Amino acid sequence: MTAPARPTPSRRSDATRAAILRAARERFAADGYERATIRAIAADARIDPSMVMRYYGSKEGLFTAAAEFDLHLPDLTAVPVGQVGEVLIRHFLARWEGDETLTALLRAASTNPGSAERMRDIFARQLVTIVATFGTDPATTARRAGLVASQILGLAFTRYIVRLPPMVDVEPDELVSWIAPTLQRYLTGLPGN
Question: How far is it, in rounded angstroms, from Cα 126 to Cα 156?
Fold first, then answer.
């Protein structure tokens, strides 16, 4: 009978990094950037705080790694043009409902310049690309993407951060019916359904 194989240092390192990132996402989402501490994140990950610093160097470095994500924007070129606003808002509602990283990033962006820059980068890089696919005046692409972001981030801020009762209480389908036509217009320059 052979002894079970011991985990290699690199596999232990990967598991430790994953535990730190998981704990950091949860802690940043719950406490925001300013109140989250390396010590609390390390405790959540069940490791020594020095390990967090070893892998990520600083709280900002950890936040940047924890907030490294893709918006996983849907391929709107495969959607009938009259439905792109609806598809996009449904996508974002599903993402916000199921991913505390977005909440953490939004919370932190309101108080931390580095986090705000991270949010700008994510939305600019990924959202401008999708808006540009609609072939309206290229000179307005960045502006239209900014308007889309203002709707999505405004909704997220009031629903998931401030938890404004009318926004928290409304069902997702009703939110879609209110917001989709506006996104439709911003995305395509055409009125929504």
Answer: 17
Give the rounded distance of the alpha carbon of 42 from its chain centre: 22
Nearest to 120 by CA among 138, 140, 105, 139: 105
The CATH number for 173's domain is 1.10.357
Is the pTM higher than 0.90? no
**Cα 31–95–91 angle (5° rounding)?**
155
Q: Are residues 136 and 52 in the same domain?
A: no
Q: Which residues constitute the domain of residue 157? A: 76-188
In a domain, 98, yes or no: yes
Residues 6+ apart with CB under 8 A from 131: 141, 144, 145, 148, 186, 187
Number of C-beta neighbours around residue 7 at 10 A: 11
pLDDT in tens, the chain (193 residues): 555 555 555 677 889 999 999 999 888 878 878 889 999 999 999 999 999 999 999 888 898 788 766 788 888 888 998 999 999 999 999 988 877 777 777 877 777 787 788 788 888 888 888 888 887 678 888 889 999 999 999 999 999 889 999 999 999 999 999 999 999 999 987 654 4
